[in-house]
Amino acid sequence: MSSPASGDEPRILLCNDDGIHAPGIQSLASALDGLGELSVVAPTTEQSAVGHAITVRDPVRAHREEFEVPSGPIPAWGVTGTPADSVKLACHELLDTPPDLVVSGINQGPNTAVNVLYSGTVSAATEASILGLDSLAISLCEWSEPQFEVAGQWARRIVMWALDRELPQGVLLNVNVPALSAEDIEGIALTRQARARWEEGFEERTDPADRSYYWLSGTFVNLDNGSETDLSAVERGYVSVTPIQYDMTAHDAFDAFDDWGWDESAEPDTSK
Ligand code: MN
User: Fold this and answer.
1) CA of 266 to the centre of ligand 1 (A)
2) Quick one: pLDDT at residue 7?
3) What residues does 238 pair with on adjacent strands?
4) Stated pTM of the model
5) In Å, what is the CA distance from 97 to each residue of 8, 23, 191, 199, 211?
6) Domains of the chain, with CATH numbers?
């Protein structure tokens, strides 16, 4: 991170996609208490799986919220928009000074493999990275009965590292914490996203007016045998940290297109 002005505490902005009243962001704020000047700007309602959506056809409103950490109240706003909206609004309007670090989470449920794309939690951190800020997303790999305390302790460890060091330009960290007790976590591993996908289907149902509607459902399938992946790390009991970037250029794929005849003088096909 860029060092804060002399004597100033680092400014840490918290966001999420489960909504400002979700237990995960409260646990995150409590876990980071004392590491800097905390503020919270997060969606008023749950925005899971909205990805990097932004609101452009409707107004976005921000409401002050009560938010307490052990050392006292911290500034907080609920935003009637998406996670990416929240980070934009925080940085452009709500905060007096841009944050030194943006932390998104703690999400209820994993954000491994392809789910990074669907995740509002990760997108809040990605938005911060686009704005030139250091950021990380943190998720707890448990949907039904999340206990955020251990994930909060790991969040604190990683945030302390991030405040001490500088992330490469355009790179953020995506952290997934296994749902284990502190002593059952094996350690922490730098990973890559696993190749995986959802085998999906829609369940068709009928509403009271006799019209069909659909619920998306599916099974998550790991197609990757690598031990260096996020999925493998979490399965083996490690906290997974994946460096990710919003530059989606397939840098390694250029060779595969060598013989396509790219040529600045190429012309469209007009034979039809
Ligand atoms: Mn979520």
Assistant:
1) 46
2) 56
3) 187
4) 0.94
5) 12, 27, 33, 44, 51
6) 11-194+227-247 (3.40.1210.10)
